[in-house]
Amino acid sequence: MALDIIRIVALISGLQFTVGFQSPTFQRHSLRISSLSAANNKEDGFSLDRRSAIATTSAAVLTSLSITNPANAFFPVGAFASTKSSTFKKSSSNNSNRVIPTWQLDGGVEFPILALNTAGLSTEETLRAIDYAQNEGLTHIDFHPGKERDGVAQFLKDSKVDRDSLFLNTKIRKPAPGTSPEDAAKLARDQIEEDLQVLGVKYVDMLMLRDTPDQKNIQAQWKVLEEALAAGKTRSVGIINYCPSGLETLMETAKVVPALNYIMCHVGMGPDIQGLRTKNEKYGIRTFAYGQTGEPEPREAMLNDPILKRIGETHKKSTEEVALRWVLQNDLAASLRPSGNFGRCEGEECQVGLSRQASCLEWELTKDEMAELNAIKYDDASPTPFSAYCPGSLVLKEGKWVPRG
């Protein structure tokens, strides 16, 4: 009863919150389609490769879900240890009453724990997905340089949304093999300037650095991100697909600890994500998750798992929703593909897919259900499938993702 009163008061007052919880080593705190005239900027080859593979391998999911779209969103009962007020602005075009919890990063940066993942989308699809996301209260946009960035830029240009109400999260391109540390640093520095110019903003909210087999390049590019942070060109810095060896390399010379490591996490990998979460926390790094249903395409074995199906039937949810709820209830932030048709955002499937995923903040799994899901194991799942060298990573060959040899 008391919790219900708190929820009602929070919604009436329009407060936003920061979620908080304890780890063993630190405290982890907790868009309209128009004519597109953006110039064809340099495309990220990694995104192009993923888009090509996604188009040929993805299977549509989220098409048989049957839940009621909520009018209001509540905090998940018991999923987080504490809450406090947040100053993160709500978008003026946001038609949802849903309030997304946030982590508080260094410097008071509010990091919304649910993000729109635009990986593989075209410029127009990115614009469409942002529009749908805004209607669901999602202000965190997780995008790549290239066509996705162009879609974000078009949204910023055409909409009346306050820039400060959005959390813009992008990545630095990987340097080609054989690139010198000096050239790798210049590439990162030039891209940051290019991104800001194309987006038409003075800063982004997060820059994430991809890994590379060359240790010196990791260290050289991280220094550039530290410089960008100090210069106010980004409000926070993070890393993507870093396994333990990459973490160790980066931390040898880092002056700023990454705010987070963006890796894959889904049921079957365990709440410690094969030990990588503990490794992150050793350095004070939070874990941001993609691939709640698998990558680079939905994992059919998990979606058809009888345990997930049974739990979903109990809550009148799909296995996809159960999978996402498991990630959130393990105190991780999550980036959301707009639909089960990876790399696409078309029509109702995209709109409904985002709505149903965002509503996963409104219900919870029981302790017994969490224990069952935590116990599921998939030995072939890697938390860093798109790493440049980590064990279990993939490489694109002839339009298909295969294990790196």
Q: In percent, how much strand structure appears in the residues?
A: 15-25%
Number of helices: 13
What's the total count of β strands?
15
**Given the helix and strand composition, which structural class is it?**
alpha/beta
Distance between the termini: 57 Å
Strand numbers in spatial order across the main sheet: 6-7-8-9-10-11-12-13
Rg computed from alpha carbons, rounded to a whole number of angstroms: 20 Å
H and E string = HEEHEEEEHEHEHEHEHEHEHHHEHHEE
Mean pLDDT rating: 81
Please summarize the sheet with the most strands. Answer: 8 strands, parallel, barrel
Instruction: Characterize the overall form.
Output: globular
Helicity range: 25-40%
- Unreliable spans are 1-43, 45-88
How would you summarize this macromolecular structure in one to three sentences?
The chain has helices at 2-13, 45-57, 123-135, 147-158, 181-199, 215-230, 244-253, 276-282, 300-303, 306-315, 319-329, 347-358, 367-375, and strands spanning 16-22, 27-28, 82-86, 102-104, 110-112, 114-117, 140-142, 167-172, 206-210, 237-240, 260-264, 286-290, 333-336, 394-397, 400-403. The protein has 405 residues and is of the alpha/beta class.
Descriptive notes:
- By secondary structure, the chain is of the alpha/beta class.
- The protein has helices spanning 2-13, 45-57, 123-135, 147-158, 181-199, 215-230, 244-253, 276-282, 300-303, 306-315, 319-329, 347-358, 367-375, and strands at 16-22, 27-28, 82-86, 102-104, 110-112, 114-117, 140-142, 167-172, 206-210, 237-240, 260-264, 286-290, 333-336, 394-397, 400-403.
- The strands form four sheets. An eight-stranded parallel β-barrel has the order 6-7-8-9-10-11-12-13, surrounded by six helices.
- Strand 9 (206-210), helix 6 (215-230) and strand 10 form a beta-alpha-beta unit.
- The longest helix is centred in the middle third of the chain and has 19 residues, at 181-199.
- The chain is globular.
- The protein starts with a helix and ends with a strand.
- The model is unreliable at 1-43 and 45-88 (pLDDT under 50).
